[in-house]
Specification:
SnoaL-like domain-containing protein, alpha+beta, globular, NTF2-like_dom_sf, SnoaL-like, Nuclear Transport Factor 2, Chain: A, 3 helices
Length: 130
């Protein structure tokens, strides 16, 4: 799969709440980094199994991701690296209130697997979902 095909699968798995399949998109030694992590979220997850564990627990949070809208896609001179400017459309499942969260995401995708997912999310756009 190309990096763009992997990213489209990632979008579908997140929207479908298929967190097992989401985790399976990562390499065994894949990493998620969230340098601007909001309260209650880790700033780093190391390895597919840590990503799986976190993702399955996140399914219990009162949030539904309706869509991940790519505002701008940046392909780089390195064919493994893709940068997305993204808006997450979601809703708090407890209150029904919709929200939008903006971010820049950097991916390194090798041989059809996500090696690195670095998420620079604007904490000011993420609602309190507790």
């Amino acid at each position: 799969m190309t990096p763009l095909e992997v990213l489209e699968l990632r979008r579908r798995h997140i929207v479908d709440r298929d967190f097992e399949s989401f985790a399976n998109l990562f390499a065994e030694d894949g990493v998620i980094e969230m340098p601007f992590a909001v309260a209650g979220l880790p700033d780093r997850l190391d390895g597919r199994e840590a990503i799986r564990e976190f993702s399955l627990k996140a399914a219990d949070h009162p949030v539904e991701i309706v869509d991940l809208r790519v505002v701008q896609l940046h392909e780089t001179v390195d064919p493994e690296v893709v940068i997305l400017e993204l808006v997450t459309d979601g809703r708090n499942t407890t209150t029904g209130e919709p929200f939008q969260a903006t971010c820049v995401q950097v991916f390194r995708i090798q041989n059809g697997e996500i090696k690195l997912f670095r998420d620079y999310v604007s904490a000011a756009t993420v609602p309190d979902l507790s």
